[in-house]
Amino acid sequence: MVPAAILALAIGVAAQSPGGAQRPVFTSSVDLVTVDVNVVDRNGRPVEDLGRDDFELSVDGQVRKIASAQFVSVKPSAGEPAASSSLPDFSTNTVQSGRLIGLVIDRGSISPVRSRDVLAAAARFVEKLDPSDHVALFSIPTGPAIDFTTDHRAIEAAVRQIDGQGDTQRGTMNIGIADALAFETNNTFTMEQVSERECGEVSGRGGSQSEVMMCNKMLKEDASIVANYAHDRARNTMNGLRAILDRLGSNDTPKTLVLVSEALIIDNERRVVEGFGRAAAAAHVTLYALKPEPSESDASEARLSGTRSRDRAVREEGLQFVSAAGGGELFRVIADPDFAFARVASELSGYYLLTFAPEAGDRDGKAHAIAVKVHRTGVSVRSRREFGVHLARSTRNDKDAIADLLRTPVAATGIPLTLTTYVFQDPGSLRVRVLVATDVERAPDPADRLSVGMVLVDDKGTAAASAYQPQMTPSPQSPPGTQRFFTTLLAQPGPYTLRAAVSSSSGLSGSVERHVRAYVSRLGPFRASELLIGDSEGGSAAGGILPTVTGEMTGGVMHAYLELFAEAPAMFDRASVTLEAAATPESPALGRAEARLQVPDSDVHSRAAAASIPLETLAAGSYVARAVIRIDGRPVGTMTRAFRVVK
């Protein structure tokens, strides 16, 4: 039988003020550099079985030691659960179910004719994304703009209303962009070829010298019009992309931008893309470019350029640059636009997070070349080409880092963490206490200090309760390889979203989100807390339960605890609680134990029920713990909790 002080270890410690009377001191941290890398096979499927030693990372040509390599699988929220999260009673960031995906429509570069089917495919791409994905829409230079949201229908509707504004025909003569850029640089060889092609007919039919000169003058004017228009479009596109990166801010949560554009011309004006790779790295953005190819018989073109193949290369050069600098890829949309979007969706279904420690020379605020290789054949690596580490970033204090993580809607995955919640009535009030039990993967460096913060947010986005500790104090009974941490949040009953974040002194971070129904249940004449279960492994000397986070039981005994509340204390004299273990919530019990109702010191309206069940006879696998509450032997309600026996 478990003694009355069963929660002294977990709840008693967690209920203490995080800082006590002492004002916390926020210290600065040294950042690790986090690099997200996609490794895909020939079909665009992520390769999932790589370890740290399979990667080689270099900065400015110098190989650096990789501190960690973690594969993050982006699983759909619907359908079969992933193996590591098959129990419904905990949340983890090691299997990510939500992404930040921004759709960028470069309207100024897309022809009105081609835009129809491509943007319709973009809307279908959004429609097929997982409901947990946060999607944003950006238009360049003007048009609909919607910040990250899970309201995919709003994004789809806005995309279907967008049209292309690109003008593929400028001037009056048959001159393509490649020819126009050659005129801009006074390439005499090309200029003579174009002059012969466009003005030779004037000379051939006996035109005067002045007519030929007039033709050449018009040719130069048209070349200037075409080149200037292309440069204006490129500047608009890059200014729009930079504004989007600034809007996304600087944090370590990976984001993806899918740029739909027919052209980004940087020839003769490469400074327009200067620093883009560093800005993308600062915003933790991976960029994919989808380039719709104009039809060979596009009715919007009055004449066909004589240099279509060269024009095509010039038009996509800038898109190749920004997609490579942004760690993504350029896909050409030739016939079936859905195929290109499907390829992007496949590549976004998993990625690796690599970390390495920057050297002193990296903190000069300048761009540094970064290269990632994989020691495996038949795969493609998508990673950014440069990064910049600013000295100012290392002065960001722990509390600011936690606040940034709690504001970001998608989980950070640099530090793997798993958490669960148990809801109890707050004695003497109508509020509830939410016990949060968290397992944080132990850092390789024992000196690495962790700060932790949590917030309960209601459906209006208002913070109902929060907690912050500049230095996490793990439980002495933490499972191997983890640091188990407890805290409690006091709030009014209601549905909430719990956000928890951890930041290390070495610069790694992790966060996770969990939906919490912060209520006690009404069972007949009683109100009942959630059923808390714990393992006998690592139990405290005081006899308290160490609440489980994942539901895994590695010891020989499962302990359970819940609280009952009644307006009439006499009802407890007629009540009994039986703890059972079963294969499913409805199946017969495989083991049971009678709980003893314990009278607390000060509240006659409540009882604590505790019991233990041996697990030696149960085979490895998933089960349900069941607390059956009875009055005069008649069941009035049941509280359950899933668990797994691990041999």
Summarize the structure.
By secondary structure, this protein is α+β, with helices and mostly antiparallel strands.
Query: How many domains is the backbone divided into?
Result: 4
Rounded mean pLDDT is 83
Strand content: 25-35%
CA(first)-CA(last) distance: 24 Å
Oligomeric form = single chain
What does this structure look like?
- It is built from ten helices and 35 strands.
- The N terminus is likely disordered.
- 22% of the residues lie in helices and 34% in strands.
- Helix 2 packs antiparallel against helix 3.
Output the keywords.
6-stranded mixed β-sheet; Rossmann fold; 7-stranded antiparallel β-sheet; 647 residues; 4 domains; alpha+beta; single chain; disordered N terminus; Immunoglobulin-like
Give me the secondary-structure topology.
Blueprint: H1 8-14, E1 33-40, E2 55-59, E3 62-64, E4 68-74, E5 91-92, E6 95-96, E7 100-106, H2 112-128, E8 134-140, E9 146-149, H3 152-161, H4 177-184, H5 188-204, H6 209-248, E10 255-260, H7 276-282, E11 285-292, H8 308-325, E12 330-333, H9 337-347, E13 350-356, E14 368-374, E15 380-382, E16 386-387, H10 398-407, E17 417-425, E18 432-441, E19 450-457, E20 463-469, E21 482-491, E22 494-504, E23 509-518, E24 521-523, E25 526-528, E26 532-535, E27 546-547, E28 552-553, E29 557-566, E30 575-582, E31 589-594, E32 596-598, E33 606-614, E34 621-631, E35 634-645
Parallel strand pairs: 4-6, 7-8, 7-10, 10-11, 11-12, 28-35
Antiparallel strand pairs: 1-13, 1-15, 2-3, 2-14, 4-13, 5-17, 8-9, 14-16, 17-18, 18-21, 19-20, 19-22, 22-23, 24-25, 25-29, 26-27, 26-29, 29-33, 30-31, 30-34, 32-33, 34-35
Helix pairs in contact: 2-3, 2-9, 4-6, 5-6
